[in-house]
Specification:
It is built from 13 helices and 30 strands. The chain is α/β, with parallel strands linked by helices. The chain is globular.
């Protein structure tokens, strides 16, 4: 039975973060190139991308470069040249949005259809498959049922976001930032107005909800649905976060690596998409990294509490309630170990986020150098765990590739071979007969099996000598260094040579292009519904869903509700 390769895809702000992701279990990473990535502040040089590609290739992991903005005509040639630079650097695929790229003379690099293409229907994915895309990133709003339907009617590999920040609008269909401040999300410059506080008004101008983050969503966490997603047809599991630092990427990658490994370990039809296995020296816990609270979004249908209306900032992990306090001290009912310097936060009685520093901790008693403002019963979150942060920062990952060693003598010295790859190294040296065979053999085994901080882990060592030998530690060390260098180059070159090639584009399929400067009348299309989230759903109340209005400063927008399809749309007031 042919096994299905399951890919864990992690974000990389830069080369160092990408390497950290690989070291902590990613099968692939996605990273911005010099230009045209959908995060304009996360660009990287071709030299850095090539360095990342070499590190990833050692573990047979992949590097995908984001070229997923809409392009002006005068940028097409620069984009075309960048595709060649990426291919020559060792990149495995490009994630793209603009269909004009398909009409250019590109290298044989595979193309993945970005979620910015608004991939929400069977028909759209079928078209992308016909166009020769090697992978399609589905929209986050899809349910398991919809994913299954797409899988049943297509064959192209499917990628799906499972963790990280959520856009309230359908990806690629948000023009709010561009409308307000001429910063286009489709050009990588989104100003995230959806994270701002808004007032909700009725048709008469009456304020229904004041100063709340009504468009801000919780963060996605589908870690409990991975096996369901696999069975629905997903083979690439994507973590959002190309602006996140290494500590976030290490922790979240390790978390999903453990989750997927558990599934793969008990299913003979699945295998990991890269080589190597990881161990970790810190507590793997996504609640300790940046999060606005978690939701599984629409994977199992519509849910009411997917928003984060009180703050767009990270709350961290919930640790307990205040059981007693005075202005400078508090006792927290918690089973967590607190540390001097931890960062804590809570929502005050006006539902505003308040942060504080635990200056001195004595068990569950926290003392602060300034008034903290907490109250009895306040729910306390820890958004900065000082000791945990030190452990994560120190973690370089511990990803190892198993090797099976054979050490044997030759006519003029010794040969060290990895039997799994047949890579070998030989060393000419005098052969010494051991006077104490047992001790000599023990020393040989001890030295030959110590590979320290190299990427390799010997699982077995076979010795083949004509007679018991005494081999100096320096001889074994030299052979190991030589084998490490040869194995590294062999594995990197093997990955590079075996990169997939892009399928031919079906030229008879029409290609639709989009003007980067065009702002349609509908500024956002959202599965998230403010009426539903706030007890005003017409299906629940029986009242007609009249338009509502969002206001922030001088900006006011009209909300229209497509109740038949459970959609909310955002329009400017200038639109009729």
């Amino acid at each position: 039975m042919k096994t299905k390769k399951i890919e864990l895809l992690s974000p990389a702000k830069d080369c160092e973060v990408g390497m950290a992701a690989i070291n902590h279990g990613a099968d692939a990473v996605y990273i911005g190139g010099p230009d045209f990535g959908a995060r304009e502040k996360a660009s990287n040089s071709i030299e850095d991308i090539e360095r990342l590609c070499r590190h990833a290739a050692l573990f047979d992991a992949k590097v995908y470069v984001t070229l997923n903005t809409l392009l002006y005509d005068n940028e097409l040639e620069r984009a075309r040249k960048m595709t060649y630079d990426c291919w020559n650097a060792g990149v495995d695929a490009l994630i793209v949005q603009d269909m004009q790229l398909l009409q250019l003379d590109l290298p044989p690099i595979p193309l993945h259809a970005s979620t910015q293409c608004d991939n929400l229907t069977v028909e759209k994915v079928q078209q992308l498959e016909q166009l020769g895309f090697s992978q399609v990133v589905l929209g986050r709003e899809l349910s398991l049922k919809q994913i299954r339907e797409i899988r049943e009617k297509t064959t192209v590999p499917l990628e799906f976001f499972v963790h990280g920040a959520l856009c309230v609008s359908h990806s690629g269909q948000c023009y709010l930032s561009q409308y307000i401040g001429n910063r286009s999300a489709n050009r990588g410059a989104c100003a995230q107005p959806c994270r701002l506080p808004w007032d909700l008004l009725d048709a008469d101008g009456k304020v229904l909800i004041k100063n709340r983050h009504l468009l801000s969503l919780k963060d996605l966490n589908n870690s409990t649905h991975l096996e369901e997603l696999i069975d629905a047809g997903i083979t690439s599991f994507k973590i959002e976060g190309r602006m996140k630092d290494a500590d976030y990427v290490k922790n979240v990658t390790a978390y999903y690596r453990q989750k997927l490994d558990e599934i793969i370990s008990r299913r003979t039809d699945l295998e990991q998409a890269s080589r190597g296995h990881c161990s970790y020296t810190f507590e793997v816990n996504p609640e300790k990294s940046f999060n606005r609270g978690f939701t599984d979004f629409f994977i199992n249908g519509r849910q009411k509490y997917i928003g984060s209306p009180f703050t767009p900032k990270s709350m961290g992990e919930y640790i307990g309630e205040v059981s007693w306090c005075n202005p400078l001290r508090m006792e927290i009912q918690t089973d967590k170990v607190l540390h001097n310097g931890d960062g804590l936060c809570f929502l005050n009685q006006d539902n505003e986020l308040v942060g504080l520093r635990a200056d001195v901790v004595n068990g569950v008693t926290v003392s602060c150098n300034r008034p903290h403002g907490a109250y009895r019963g306040a729910k306390i979150y820890r958004n900065y765990d000082l000791e945990w942060q030190k452990q994560v920062d120190a973690s370089m990952g511990n990803r190892k590739i198993d090797i099976d060693l054979l050490l044997r003598e030759t006519h003029d010295g010794y040969e060290l071979i990895d039997k799994l790859s047949t890579v070998n190294c030989q060393l000419k040296t005098d052969k010494i007969t051991a006077n104490n065979p047992e001790k000599a053999t023990e020393n040989i085994r001890k030295k030959a099996l110590q590979w320290g901080d190299t990427p390799f882990n010997p699982v077995n060592l076979e010795l083949q000598f004509a007679e018991p030998r005494l081999i100096p530690a320096s001889v074994i060390g030299e052979m190991k260094r030589d084998l490490v260098a040869k194995l590294t180059e062999e594995l990197i070159e093997s990955h590079r040579n075996n990169r997939a090639l892009r399928a031919n584009v079906a030229r008879d399929v029409s290609i639709t292009t989009t003007d980067p400067d065009e702002i349609p009348s509908c500024l956002m299309t959202c599965h998230h519904c403010i009426r539903y989230a706030n007890g005003m759903c017409s299906k629940e109340t029986g009242k007609k869903a009249e338009p509502l209005y969002l206001r922030n400063g001088n900006n006011t927008f009209r909300l229209e509700f497509d109740c038949r399809n459970c959609l909310m749309r955002v329009f400017s007031l200038a639109t009729n």
